[in-house]
Amino acid sequence: GREWHLLSRPVGWPKPEDFALVEAEVPAPGEGQVLVRNEYLSVDPYMRGRMSAAKSYVAPYELGKAMQGGAVGEVVASNAEGIAAGDHVLHFLGWREYAVVDAKNAVKVDPEAAPLPAYLGVLGMTGLTAYAGLLRTAAFKEGDCVFVSGAAGAVGSQVGQIAKLRGASRVIGSAGSDEKVKLLVEEYGFDAAFNYRTGPVSEQLRAAAPDGIDVYFDNVGGDHLEAAIGSLNRDGRIAVCGMISVYNNTEPAPGPRNLARLIQTRGRIEGFLVGDHYDLQPQFVQEVGPWVRSGELKYRETVVEGIENNLEAFLGVLRGDNTGKMIVKL
Ligand code: NDP
Questions:
Q1: Which of 42, 231, 285, 287 has a CA that sits 20 to 30 A from residue 89's CA?
Q2: What is the CATH number of domain 2-121+300-329?
Q3: ipTM higher than 0.85?
Q4: SS3 sequence, the chain?
Protein backbone atom coordinates (compact mmCIF):
# COMPACT_ATOMS: atom_id res chain seq x y z
CA GLY A 1 0.00 0.00 0.00
CA ARG A 2 1.04 3.61 -0.49
CA GLU A 3 1.78 6.01 2.36
CA TRP A 4 2.83 9.65 2.69
CA HIS A 5 6.20 10.40 4.25
CA LEU A 6 7.53 13.71 5.52
CA LEU A 7 11.00 14.21 3.99
CA SER A 8 11.95 17.62 5.33
CA ARG A 9 10.39 20.04 7.80
CA PRO A 10 8.59 22.82 5.92
CA VAL A 11 9.52 26.42 6.58
CA GLY A 12 6.55 28.67 5.89
CA TRP A 13 4.04 27.15 3.48
CA PRO A 14 4.70 23.41 3.00
CA LYS A 15 6.04 22.56 -0.46
CA PRO A 16 5.42 19.32 -2.37
CA GLU A 17 9.19 18.54 -2.18
CA ASP A 18 8.83 18.23 1.61
CA PHE A 19 6.75 15.07 1.09
CA ALA A 20 6.74 11.80 -0.83
CA LEU A 21 4.13 9.17 -1.59
CA VAL A 22 5.92 5.88 -1.00
CA GLU A 23 5.05 2.25 -1.70
CA ALA A 24 5.33 0.25 1.54
CA GLU A 25 4.92 -3.37 2.42
CA VAL A 26 1.83 -4.28 4.40
CA PRO A 27 2.72 -6.64 7.25
CA ALA A 28 0.31 -9.18 8.71
CA PRO A 29 -1.29 -8.01 11.96
CA GLY A 30 0.57 -9.19 15.08
CA GLU A 31 -0.95 -10.32 18.34
CA GLY A 32 -3.64 -7.81 19.39
CA GLN A 33 -3.54 -5.99 16.06
CA VAL A 34 -5.83 -5.53 13.09
CA LEU A 35 -5.12 -4.76 9.44
CA VAL A 36 -7.30 -1.94 8.17
CA ARG A 37 -7.99 -0.87 4.60
CA ASN A 38 -8.46 2.85 5.05
CA GLU A 39 -11.51 4.30 3.32
CA TYR A 40 -11.59 7.90 4.59
CA LEU A 41 -8.67 10.00 5.80
CA SER A 42 -8.80 13.20 7.78
CA VAL A 43 -6.62 16.20 7.02
CA ASP A 44 -6.53 18.83 9.75
CA PRO A 45 -4.82 22.15 10.44
CA TYR A 46 -2.99 20.75 13.52
CA MET A 47 -0.96 18.51 11.18
CA ARG A 48 1.01 21.59 10.16
CA GLY A 49 2.30 21.74 13.74
CA ARG A 50 3.41 18.11 13.64
CA MET A 51 5.49 18.82 10.53
CA SER A 52 7.66 21.15 12.63
CA ALA A 53 10.24 19.95 15.11
CA ALA A 54 8.96 22.23 17.87
CA LYS A 55 7.80 20.47 21.02
CA SER A 56 4.02 20.54 21.32
CA TYR A 57 1.15 18.52 22.69
CA VAL A 58 1.66 15.80 20.05
CA ALA A 59 5.03 14.50 18.89
CA PRO A 60 6.41 15.87 15.61
CA TYR A 61 6.10 13.61 12.56
CA GLU A 62 9.31 11.65 12.07
CA LEU A 63 11.25 12.33 8.90
CA GLY A 64 11.21 9.46 6.41
CA LYS A 65 8.27 7.77 8.11
CA ALA A 66 4.55 7.66 7.39
CA MET A 67 2.60 10.61 8.76
CA GLN A 68 -0.41 10.01 10.97
CA GLY A 69 -3.94 11.30 11.25
CA GLY A 70 -7.53 10.31 11.80
CA ALA A 71 -8.83 7.55 9.52
CA VAL A 72 -11.79 5.22 9.12
CA GLY A 73 -11.60 1.94 7.33
CA GLU A 74 -12.59 -1.69 7.08
CA VAL A 75 -10.80 -4.39 9.00
CA VAL A 76 -9.51 -6.91 6.46
CA ALA A 77 -7.67 -9.18 8.92
CA SER A 78 -7.86 -9.38 12.67
CA ASN A 79 -5.60 -10.86 15.27
CA ALA A 80 -7.41 -9.16 18.14
CA GLU A 81 -10.31 -10.10 20.34
CA GLY A 82 -13.52 -8.09 19.89
CA ILE A 83 -12.77 -6.90 16.35
CA ALA A 84 -13.50 -9.05 13.31
CA ALA A 85 -12.77 -8.77 9.61
CA GLY A 86 -15.56 -6.68 8.07
CA ASP A 87 -15.85 -4.37 11.07
CA HIS A 88 -15.23 -0.66 10.55
CA VAL A 89 -12.89 1.20 12.86
CA LEU A 90 -11.78 4.73 13.61
CA HIS A 91 -8.07 5.00 14.33
CA PHE A 92 -5.09 7.28 14.06
CA LEU A 93 -2.95 5.86 11.25
CA GLY A 94 -4.09 7.95 8.32
CA TRP A 95 -2.00 9.26 5.39
CA ARG A 96 -1.80 5.65 4.09
CA GLU A 97 -3.88 3.06 2.26
CA TYR A 98 -3.39 0.16 4.70
CA ALA A 99 -2.67 0.37 8.42
CA VAL A 100 -1.74 -2.19 11.04
CA VAL A 101 -3.36 -0.86 14.17
CA ASP A 102 -3.18 -1.97 17.81
CA ALA A 103 -6.75 -2.91 18.68
CA LYS A 104 -6.59 -0.72 21.79
CA ASN A 105 -6.13 2.29 19.49
CA ALA A 106 -9.07 1.39 17.25
CA VAL A 107 -12.69 2.29 17.98
CA LYS A 108 -15.42 0.34 16.24
CA VAL A 109 -17.88 2.52 14.33
CA ASP A 110 -21.23 1.63 12.86
CA PRO A 111 -21.67 2.48 9.15
CA GLU A 112 -25.43 2.01 9.55
CA ALA A 113 -25.69 4.65 12.30
CA ALA A 114 -23.90 7.37 10.34
CA PRO A 115 -21.98 7.71 7.08
CA LEU A 116 -18.33 6.75 7.71
CA PRO A 117 -16.78 10.21 7.11
CA ALA A 118 -19.08 11.66 9.78
CA TYR A 119 -16.94 9.88 12.38
CA LEU A 120 -14.03 12.12 11.34
CA GLY A 121 -16.07 15.32 11.31
CA VAL A 122 -19.55 16.21 12.43
CA LEU A 123 -19.78 13.34 14.95
CA GLY A 124 -16.04 13.02 15.46
CA MET A 125 -13.05 15.04 16.59
CA THR A 126 -14.01 18.36 15.03
CA GLY A 127 -17.59 18.09 16.29
CA LEU A 128 -16.45 17.43 19.84
CA THR A 129 -14.02 20.35 19.54
CA ALA A 130 -16.91 22.66 18.73
CA TYR A 131 -19.07 21.24 21.51
CA ALA A 132 -16.45 21.25 24.27
CA GLY A 133 -14.94 24.59 23.32
CA LEU A 134 -18.27 26.36 23.18
CA LEU A 135 -20.03 24.81 26.15
CA ARG A 136 -17.15 24.14 28.51
CA THR A 137 -14.28 26.51 27.71
CA ALA A 138 -16.40 29.47 26.62
CA ALA A 139 -19.09 28.54 29.18
CA PHE A 140 -21.78 29.43 26.65
CA LYS A 141 -25.20 30.20 28.10
CA GLU A 142 -28.59 30.92 26.59
CA GLY A 143 -28.91 34.52 25.45
CA ASP A 144 -25.21 34.97 24.66
CA CYS A 145 -24.16 36.71 21.49
CA VAL A 146 -21.54 34.48 19.86
CA PHE A 147 -18.90 35.28 17.27
CA VAL A 148 -16.97 32.46 15.56
CA SER A 149 -14.20 32.72 12.99
CA GLY A 150 -13.43 30.01 10.45
CA ALA A 151 -17.20 29.74 10.52
CA ALA A 152 -17.64 27.77 7.30
CA GLY A 153 -15.08 25.18 8.37
CA ALA A 154 -15.60 21.91 10.19
CA VAL A 155 -15.38 23.23 13.75
CA GLY A 156 -16.72 26.73 13.14
CA SER A 157 -19.89 25.73 11.30
CA GLN A 158 -20.81 23.48 14.19
CA VAL A 159 -20.02 26.08 16.86
CA GLY A 160 -22.42 28.56 15.29
CA GLN A 161 -25.23 26.07 14.86
CA ILE A 162 -24.89 24.55 18.34
CA ALA A 163 -25.00 28.07 19.77
CA LYS A 164 -28.21 28.79 17.81
CA LEU A 165 -29.82 25.49 18.84
CA ARG A 166 -28.84 26.19 22.46
CA GLY A 167 -30.54 29.59 22.47
CA ALA A 168 -27.93 32.18 21.51
CA SER A 169 -29.35 35.68 21.13
CA ARG A 170 -27.25 36.25 18.03
CA VAL A 171 -24.60 34.31 16.11
CA ILE A 172 -22.06 35.96 13.84
CA GLY A 173 -19.53 34.19 11.65
CA SER A 174 -16.59 35.19 9.49
CA ALA A 175 -15.22 33.31 6.51
CA GLY A 176 -12.97 33.84 3.52
CA SER A 177 -15.40 34.03 0.60
CA ASP A 178 -18.77 35.54 -0.26
CA GLU A 179 -20.06 32.09 -1.10
CA LYS A 180 -19.20 30.84 2.39
CA VAL A 181 -20.78 33.92 3.96
CA LYS A 182 -23.97 33.25 2.05
CA LEU A 183 -23.99 29.63 3.21
CA LEU A 184 -23.63 30.70 6.86
CA VAL A 185 -26.67 32.94 6.75
CA GLU A 186 -28.90 31.10 4.31
CA GLU A 187 -28.23 27.49 5.22
CA TYR A 188 -26.75 27.41 8.70
CA GLY A 189 -29.00 30.11 10.17
CA PHE A 190 -26.31 32.53 11.35
CA ASP A 191 -27.80 35.96 12.10
CA ALA A 192 -24.95 37.75 10.37
CA ALA A 193 -21.73 36.88 8.61
CA PHE A 194 -18.93 38.68 6.80
CA ASN A 195 -16.00 38.03 4.48
CA TYR A 196 -12.81 38.88 6.36
CA ARG A 197 -10.93 39.40 3.10
CA THR A 198 -13.07 42.34 1.98
CA GLY A 199 -12.57 44.79 4.88
CA PRO A 200 -11.16 45.25 8.38
CA VAL A 201 -12.45 42.56 10.74
CA SER A 202 -12.99 45.02 13.60
CA GLU A 203 -15.27 47.25 11.53
CA GLN A 204 -17.20 44.36 10.05
CA LEU A 205 -17.66 42.78 13.46
CA ARG A 206 -18.84 46.03 15.03
CA ALA A 207 -21.43 46.40 12.26
CA ALA A 208 -22.59 42.79 12.67
CA ALA A 209 -22.72 42.95 16.48
CA PRO A 210 -23.65 46.51 17.42
CA ASP A 211 -24.39 45.44 21.01
CA GLY A 212 -21.09 43.60 21.39
CA ILE A 213 -20.35 39.91 21.82
CA ASP A 214 -20.36 37.67 24.89
CA VAL A 215 -18.42 34.76 23.41
CA TYR A 216 -15.71 34.58 20.79
CA PHE A 217 -14.69 31.14 19.51
CA ASP A 218 -11.29 31.70 17.92
CA ASN A 219 -10.14 29.49 15.07
CA VAL A 220 -7.98 32.09 13.41
CA GLY A 221 -6.08 34.45 15.76
CA GLY A 222 -4.45 37.66 14.48
CA ASP A 223 -6.73 40.57 13.68
CA HIS A 224 -9.79 38.42 14.38
CA LEU A 225 -8.75 38.05 18.01
CA GLU A 226 -8.04 41.74 18.38
CA ALA A 227 -11.41 42.60 16.85
CA ALA A 228 -13.18 40.20 19.21
CA ILE A 229 -11.49 41.73 22.25
CA GLY A 230 -12.58 45.12 20.95
CA SER A 231 -16.23 44.00 20.77
CA LEU A 232 -16.24 41.97 23.99
CA ASN A 233 -19.02 42.68 26.49
CA ARG A 234 -18.71 42.62 30.24
CA ASP A 235 -17.84 39.09 31.50
CA GLY A 236 -17.11 38.02 27.93
CA ARG A 237 -15.29 34.78 27.22
CA ILE A 238 -12.87 33.88 24.45
CA ALA A 239 -12.15 30.21 23.75
CA VAL A 240 -8.90 29.85 21.84
CA CYS A 241 -9.34 26.76 19.69
CA GLY A 242 -6.89 27.48 16.90
CA MET A 243 -4.95 30.26 15.21
CA ILE A 244 -4.72 29.12 11.63
CA SER A 245 -3.64 32.56 10.42
CA VAL A 246 -0.21 32.04 12.02
CA TYR A 247 0.50 28.35 11.38
CA ASN A 248 2.76 29.05 8.39
CA ASN A 249 4.41 32.13 9.86
CA THR A 250 8.18 32.10 10.13
CA GLU A 251 8.18 35.01 12.62
CA PRO A 252 5.93 35.34 15.69
CA ALA A 253 2.81 37.33 14.88
CA PRO A 254 2.13 40.55 16.80
CA GLY A 255 -0.25 40.09 19.72
CA PRO A 256 -3.57 41.88 20.18
CA ARG A 257 -2.91 45.54 21.00
CA ASN A 258 -6.03 45.95 23.10
CA LEU A 259 -5.58 43.35 25.85
CA ALA A 260 -6.21 46.07 28.44
CA ARG A 261 -9.90 45.82 27.51
CA LEU A 262 -9.94 42.54 29.43
CA ILE A 263 -9.75 44.60 32.62
CA GLN A 264 -12.83 46.72 32.07
CA THR A 265 -14.78 43.80 30.61
CA ARG A 266 -13.57 41.30 33.25
CA GLY A 267 -12.98 39.21 30.14
CA ARG A 268 -11.42 35.80 30.06
CA ILE A 269 -9.28 34.17 27.35
CA GLU A 270 -8.65 30.45 27.60
CA GLY A 271 -7.11 27.93 25.26
CA PHE A 272 -8.28 24.32 25.13
CA LEU A 273 -7.43 21.00 23.52
CA VAL A 274 -10.14 18.60 22.48
CA GLY A 275 -8.06 15.72 23.80
CA ASP A 276 -8.78 16.87 27.35
CA HIS A 277 -12.54 16.73 26.84
CA TYR A 278 -13.31 13.19 25.68
CA ASP A 279 -15.38 12.73 28.84
CA LEU A 280 -17.96 14.87 27.00
CA GLN A 281 -18.07 12.49 24.00
CA PRO A 282 -21.17 10.53 25.15
CA GLN A 283 -23.07 13.72 25.97
CA PHE A 284 -21.95 15.24 22.67
CA VAL A 285 -23.18 12.27 20.63
CA GLN A 286 -26.43 12.16 22.58
CA GLU A 287 -27.21 15.83 22.03
CA VAL A 288 -25.74 16.53 18.60
CA GLY A 289 -26.43 13.13 16.95
CA PRO A 290 -30.20 13.70 16.83
CA TRP A 291 -29.74 17.25 15.48
CA VAL A 292 -27.60 15.85 12.67
CA ARG A 293 -30.10 13.07 11.90
CA SER A 294 -33.07 15.46 11.92
CA GLY A 295 -31.24 17.98 9.75
CA GLU A 296 -31.53 20.72 12.39
CA LEU A 297 -27.75 20.84 12.35
CA LYS A 298 -26.47 20.95 8.81
CA TYR A 299 -23.01 20.08 7.65
CA ARG A 300 -20.95 19.95 4.50
CA GLU A 301 -17.90 17.96 3.63
CA THR A 302 -15.35 18.65 0.95
CA VAL A 303 -14.25 15.28 -0.40
CA VAL A 304 -11.02 14.85 -2.35
CA GLU A 305 -10.47 11.44 -3.96
CA GLY A 306 -7.34 9.34 -4.00
CA ILE A 307 -4.31 8.81 -1.77
CA GLU A 308 -2.22 10.71 -4.34
CA ASN A 309 -4.26 13.83 -3.51
CA ASN A 310 -3.93 13.56 0.28
CA LEU A 311 -1.25 16.26 0.42
CA GLU A 312 -3.16 18.63 -1.85
CA ALA A 313 -6.23 18.14 0.36
CA PHE A 314 -4.18 19.09 3.42
CA LEU A 315 -2.78 22.18 1.71
CA GLY A 316 -6.32 22.99 0.63
CA VAL A 317 -7.41 23.21 4.27
CA LEU A 318 -4.70 25.79 4.93
CA ARG A 319 -5.81 27.74 1.84
CA GLY A 320 -9.52 27.56 2.58
CA ASP A 321 -10.49 25.29 -0.34
CA ASN A 322 -12.81 23.38 1.99
CA THR A 323 -16.34 24.06 3.12
CA GLY A 324 -16.93 21.99 6.22
CA LYS A 325 -14.73 19.00 7.01
CA MET A 326 -12.05 18.18 4.46
CA ILE A 327 -12.03 14.43 3.79
CA VAL A 328 -9.88 12.25 1.57
CA LYS A 329 -11.76 9.29 0.11
CA LEU A 330 -9.72 6.30 -0.98
P1 NDP B 1 -11.51 24.11 8.92
O2 NDP B 1 -12.46 23.15 8.33
O3 NDP B 1 -12.06 25.32 9.58
O4 NDP B 1 -10.47 24.53 7.80
C5 NDP B 1 -9.58 25.58 8.02
C6 NDP B 1 -10.17 26.90 7.51
O7 NDP B 1 -9.39 27.98 7.99
C8 NDP B 1 -10.09 27.05 6.00
O9 NDP B 1 -11.18 26.45 5.37
C10 NDP B 1 -10.05 28.56 5.82
O11 NDP B 1 -11.37 29.04 5.55
C12 NDP B 1 -9.61 29.10 7.18
N13 NDP B 1 -8.38 29.88 7.08
C14 NDP B 1 -7.20 29.52 6.54
N15 NDP B 1 -6.30 30.53 6.65
C16 NDP B 1 -6.95 31.56 7.26
C17 NDP B 1 -6.56 32.87 7.65
N18 NDP B 1 -5.31 33.35 7.44
N19 NDP B 1 -7.48 33.66 8.26
C20 NDP B 1 -8.73 33.20 8.49
N21 NDP B 1 -9.14 31.97 8.14
C22 NDP B 1 -8.27 31.15 7.54
O23 NDP B 1 -10.56 23.36 9.95
P24 NDP B 1 -11.02 22.74 11.33
O25 NDP B 1 -12.44 23.01 11.55
O26 NDP B 1 -10.51 21.37 11.38
O27 NDP B 1 -10.14 23.59 12.38
C28 NDP B 1 -10.52 24.93 12.69
C29 NDP B 1 -9.56 25.47 13.74
O30 NDP B 1 -9.69 24.70 14.94
C31 NDP B 1 -8.08 25.40 13.37
O32 NDP B 1 -7.44 26.55 13.84
C33 NDP B 1 -7.60 24.18 14.08
O34 NDP B 1 -6.22 24.22 14.34
C35 NDP B 1 -8.42 24.24 15.35
N36 NDP B 1 -8.63 22.97 16.04
C37 NDP B 1 -8.30 22.92 17.37
C38 NDP B 1 -8.54 21.82 18.12
C39 NDP B 1 -8.23 21.85 19.57
O40 NDP B 1 -8.29 20.81 20.22
N41 NDP B 1 -7.91 23.00 20.14
C42 NDP B 1 -9.11 20.59 17.51
C43 NDP B 1 -9.48 20.76 16.11
C44 NDP B 1 -9.23 21.91 15.43
P45 NDP B 1 -11.66 30.50 4.93
O46 NDP B 1 -12.08 30.27 3.53
O47 NDP B 1 -12.76 31.02 5.78
O48 NDP B 1 -10.39 31.30 5.03
A1: 287
A2: 3.90.180.10
A3: yes
A4: CEEEEECCCCCCCCCHHHEEEEECCCCCCCCCEEEEEEEEEECCCHHHHHCCCCCCCCCCCCECCECCECEEEEEEEECCCCCCCCCEEEECECCECEEEEEHHHCEEECCCCCCHHHHCCCCCHHHHHHHHHHHHHCCCCCCCEEEECCCCEHHHHHHHHHHHHCCCCEEEEEECCHHHHHHHHHCCCCCEEEEHHHCCHHHHHHHHCCCCEEEEEECCCHHHHHHHHHCEEEEEEEEECCCHHHCCCCCCCCCCCCCCHHHHHCCEEEECCHHHHHHHHHHHHHHHHHHHHHCCCCCCEEEEECHHHHHHHHHHHHHCCCCEEEEEEC
